[in-house]
Write a structure and sequence with these properties.
7 copies of one chain form a homoheptamer.
Chain A: E1 3-5, E2 9-14, H1 17-22, E3 25-27, E4 35-43, E5 47-49, E6 52-54, E7 63-67, E8 72-76, E9 79-85, E10 89-93
Antiparallel strand pairs in A: 2-4, 2-9, 4-7, 5-6, 7-10, 8-9
Chain lengths: ~90, ~90, ~90, ~90, ~90, ~90, ~90
């Protein structure tokens, strides 16, 4: 994929329904903040963001749960991605 | 459980009604901020969050009272969990 | 009581009507911010809260006037308590 | 009076109408921010408030003009008082 | 006049319509932020305000243009004054 | 002109329609944030503004594009000016 | 082009529909935050912005995805540009 996130942003790709079932995770959420399981596709460099040092702790390949509502969705070569801030990632799934 | 919270987040599991009765705690709350008793299942690493150093003070196994409204609910292998920030935990129950 | 407040939180218990009359304090307040007289039951450890050092200055047994609206009410063994931040306590009553 | 304000709070008592007339001050204000002349009855210790050092500059006995809207009113032994933050005091009247 | 402003506050007095015409200044403004020409009557000491050092740069006698909407109006001995923060003063008129 | 801006404020004068056409710039904007081309007439001294050091980078005579919505309009000796903060200036036009 | 952005602002130009198709990127977005692919035309100097040091990391010629909603559109010599803050740029496209 040819998208490189800036600053503390992370590009994630929603995990397909089949995979979600396999890992046994079913998500419930309000209309305002829809949590979803996703895979990390690309990670920004971190550094100074709004005057604060941000160290990136997620890695490409991590499965993550995010608060999707503040992300931006893009479609590249037929695949849908979401760009979120690392701070919007709640947990990793192992 | 296979969820690892990031930053200052804590994964909690609501304590069943029977347990709540046993410890003698009955909660009342407004529609906006529903307090609940929960057990801590996993604790994030803390560290720099929004440019501020956060030290995690809750431990796995702690019974806690939280302001549930800002949490995100997930269901893993049939169990429901909530992901909150440590700052949303009001007190521990001993 | 078996509740231990976290960070800058304080657990208080409303003073009964009889006591309120005894000390001669009658409170008036808007619907939005209802002041009440309460006794401090437990005090959190203070320390870093939202990146700021908080020193706890109220003590168990203090009679206090608070802005109740941001507190959370819990009922333990038949007694009702309120959990507030120290910053929501306006004054002590001697 | 037996109220001791915390942090940067100040307890004030509205000056009676007669006094207001005597000093020649007539106040006009919007419904949202009602300025009033009051006498300082008790002054909190100041110190760190929301992570910022506050030095108290008003003294007991000062006549002050405040933005009353953020204050909390209490009645002690038949007298009405208002608890405000020092930052809500606009000026002293000499 | 017997009003002493606190902190970064400044007491100003609207310049009469005649004077406004003499200096050739006619002001237009929205209902939300009504700019006005005024004379500085008293200047607070400055110092730490909300944790930030404020140096007062306006002087008694300065003619100033302000955003009046956040000020508080008082009437002392038949004269109307407005209390504003120095940060609400946009420019001086020479 | 006899207006001296304070702090990080800048006084600008809208460029006439003819000039706008000459430089080939046509502006479009939403109702909420109307961009306009203007000439810088006076520049404040900068310095500490809201506790942050501001260095003024625009100069008298610069042509600038601003977000006009937060400015205040004044009329001096028949000319209309706008007072904006330097941070509301988006770009210079050369 | 004769526009020089100030501070942390970046001038971008939306990439034509043909180009968008060629790179295989199709964008979806909510009404509130419309993401778009654009080319960087000019980059501000960075430096202290709102009291925080900003280092510019995008370069002229970069293809970027932005949250367009906070930008300001201008038309210069028949071409439409958008002025955004660097922080509103989510990712670069390679």
């Amino acid at each position: 994929m040819n998208l490189k996130p800036l600053a503390d942003r992370v590009i994630i790709k929603m995990v397909e329904a089949e995979e979600t079932t396999k890992s046994g995770i079913i998500l419930t959420g309000s209309a305002k903040e829809k949590p979803e399981v996703a895979e990390v596709i690309a990670v920004g460099p971190g550094g100074m963001v709004d005057g604060k040092e941000v160290v990136m702790t997620v890695k490409v390949g991590d499965k993550v749960i995010t608060s999707k509502y503040s992300g931006t969705q893009v479609k590249v070569e037929g695949e849908e991605y979401t760009i979120v801030r690392q701070g919007d990632i709640l947990a990793t799934v192992e």
